[in-house]
Amino acid sequence: MSDRYAVIGRPINHTKSPLIHGLFAQVAGQCLEYGALEGELEGFEAQVLQFRSDGGLGMNITAPFKLRAFELADQRSERAQLARAANALKFEDGRIFAENFDGIGLLRDIEENLGEPLANRRVLLLGAGGAVRGALLPFLQAGPSELVLANRDMAKALALRNELDHPRLRISRYEELEGQSFDIVVNATSASLTGELPPLPEGVLGATQLAYELAYGKGLTPFLRMAQAQGVVRLADGVGMLVEQAAEAFAWWRGVRPETRAVIDRLTIPLE
Ligand code: ATR
Q: Model-level pTM?
């Protein structure tokens, strides 16, 4: 029997993870099986433990179970701890290890695939939810001149800053962004899922080189349209992040980092 992995979430029918990991296994010459499980709100933990006792070696975790997966683990990486969420589990030596590769996947996509290093740049991150929690540590480690985090609910932003006090990290209200400019702007709010636009003051994106939307497969979201209207040349959605976080998990489980370019190209839907 080949080594077994799976993604678990609810709903799970639109997941791309089995396709991505299947392609990785092909290109890396690895023999494994990767399935998808519809998580149960009542019995999520029991499902994970059952998957492990059936011989499973690792899982990807998606909404709404990332926090529960984190809590279920015996050992958690630093970035998973800051995110308070796990998007990958590994079962080894009778223990459950938790990781969070969302932030590092996003960083790799921006720096390596899109060719926009964060070092010494001014970076604006919109939102203070789970996606931002995952991104903060890898982003700060990449050495931006300043990382500004804007959120509507300042209490949430303050709570994050209190957990990670860093000289380059600043939190801001949206209206305080008026008159400022940023090299790279990442929309990590869930606004695009409901077709909304974060309340960015007019002109903030005027000198921006890259506008990155975390949601993927939604075409030109209101945020990306706003960026386009303000002359931002480089627009990206989160498909590259999705593939890069998967590659990190694959490497963590299998010890081999697969090539991602062809997989990203295969999943990319043109932004229009
Ligand atoms: P996720 O795990 O996807 O980050 P979340 O934890 O529910 O989701 O967080 C959603 C984030 O999107 C929050 O930061 C939320 O802002 P508030 O904390 O101020 O509510 C942000 N968000 C959602 N809709 C938004 C909108 N229309 N404009 C700006 N921010 C929005």
A: 0.96
